[in-house]
Design goal:
Blueprint (H helix, E strand, L loop, with lengths): L14 H11 L8 H14 L3 E5 L2 H11 L7 E4 L6 H8 L3 E4 L11 H9 L6 E5 L10 H11 L2 E5 L7 E3 L5 E3 L8 E5 L12 E5 L2 H11 L3 E2 L13 E2 L10 H12 L1 H19 L4 E2 L13 E4 L3 H10 L15 H8 L5 H9 E4 L7 H18 L2
Parallel strand pairs: 2-3, 2-4, 4-5, 5-8
Antiparallel strand pairs: 1-9, 6-7, 8-9, 10-11, 12-13, 13-14
Helix pairs in contact: 1-8, 2-8, 3-4, 3-7, 9-13
The chain binds pyridoxal-5'-phosphate (PLP).
């Protein structure tokens, strides 16, 4: 085995990807050409959604999703504290208030019970929406969240950044692919290099609503549309109808996204094989993320919980294994503390954070490196557990 560093995540770029990018570089469009639409169409088909809007990154996607759902300043949205800050920041971009509900201590995703309790502790109309996250690749049961949301007139944005290719099974026995828009209003994906599909930077917003699709497309390009041409205008005419952004993805990135997407099913299978190896080795010894019945985890991450997390993290680094921690609870980050969230009562999230550690998980992680990682972890725990 070579003794290079083993990271927790890594992109998988092959000659197909390189050729696709090079071919775009020498073609007519570097941006706003045919590759963007092709990527959007293929991605929508892949996740079984009607529409997809490519964006410059998932954070931009989250921002225009919250705008498209018309969040007004001061309005309140619930999300999970165990996520990347962007899942909450998008609400702040629109001057909304973020409220955190606790996580489930076994799946590590937003707890339905805790969300229900929070909603029911306030008068009707207090909250506007929920942003559940398919954390680590584990799909949230959106059928259950939809029932709760409908009862209280809330929208749902599914942050599926970790989960292209994952699904949960609904009460009719149907596989519901992450981001398919059947239960959430909008789904969001990220194409950052540590994610399943690497575009350098990039993201996709999916929906089944034509009205939301049109609004998202407009917000992604400055709030501009060419729809109202009328017969008195020439081909140059466009209207800027509201204040939007330049959140576009380029043709170069989309070309890479298309070839990356074509490999995603294989990548998710490979990730699940690695997860099975970890589970086999750790069963009855180490706690790991549980898998609800009927769910298929896309395994962006494989997370375990250990008492001496810092000890294990430091030890693994001396062995060239670079793990990561996902995530510092968002409500404890200095920005959120300062605006008043520091005292939130989120015991499961804080307990989880004190123990969690994400192990190497990427499709090209070789068998012998997996064994090496497993052996180093078991060895550390044996030496350090009395
Ligand atoms: C759950 C989640 N949401 C949103 C984002 C933001 O993605 P991007 O880096 O594409 O803006 C990330 C990125 O790490 C993420 O993990």
């Amino acid at each position: 085995m070579d003794n290079s560093v083993i990271p927790y995540g890594r992109q998988n770029i092959d000659q197909n990807d390189i050729d696709a990018v090079v071919n775009t570089l020498i073609a007519d469009f570097l941006t706003q050409g045919p590759k963007v639409k092709e990527f959007e169409d293929k991605f929508a088909r892949y996740v079984n959604a009607k529409y997809a809007v490519a964006v410059s990154n998932a954070t931009a996607g989250l921002h225009i999703a919250v705008m498209a759902l018309d969040l007004k300043p001061g309005e309140r949205v619930i999300t999970t504290p165990i996520t990347f800050a962007a899942s909450a920041n998008c609400v702040r971009y629109c001057d909304g208030e973020v409220w955190f509900a606790d996580i489930d201590k076994d799946t590590y995703t937003l707890s339905l019970e805790s969300t229900k309790e929070l909603i029911e502790s306030k008068p009707k109309g207090f909250f506007k929406g929920i942003i559940p996250v398919d954390f680590a690749g584990l799909p949230v049961n959106l059928e259950a969240f939809r029932a709760l949301a409908d009862k209280h007139d809330l929208w749902i944005i599914e942050d599926a950044c970790h989960a292209p290719g994952g699904y949960f099974t609904d009460s009719k026995g149907k596989q519901q692919w992450c981001g398919n828009g059947n239960y959430a209003d909008i789904g969001i994906f990220s194409f950052h290099p540590v994610k399943h599909i690497a575009c350098g930077e990039g993201g996709m917003v999916t929906t089944n609503s034509e009205a939301l699709y049109k609004r998202l497309s407009k917000l992604r390009t400055h709030g501009i549309t060419k729809e109202n041409m009328g017969e008195n205008h020439g081909g140059w005419y466009y209207e800027m109808q509201e204040l939007g952004y330049n959140y576009r993805l380029t043709d170069i990135q989309s070309a890479l996204g298309i070839t990356q997407l074509a490999k995603n099913d294989l990548g998710v299978v490979r990730r699940n094989e690695i997860a099975s190896n970890y589970k086999r080795a750790f069963k009855d010894k180490i706690k790991y993320q549980s898998l609800p019945k009927g769910a298929y985890n896309a395994h962006h991450l494989f997370i375990i919980e250990v008492e001496d997390r810092k000890g294990l993290y430091d030890y693994l680094r001396t062995q060239n294994i670079f793990t990561q921690i996902h995530y510092i609870p968002v409500h404890t980050l200095p920005y959120y503390k300062e605006i008043g969230y520091g005292d939130a009562d989120l015991n499961n999230a804080e307990d989880y954070y004190s123990k969690c550690i994400s192990l190497p998980m990427y499709p090209t992680l070789e068998e012998e490196k997996q064994t090496y990682v497993i052996d180093r972890i078991l060895e550390f725990l044996e030496k350090n557990t009395k």
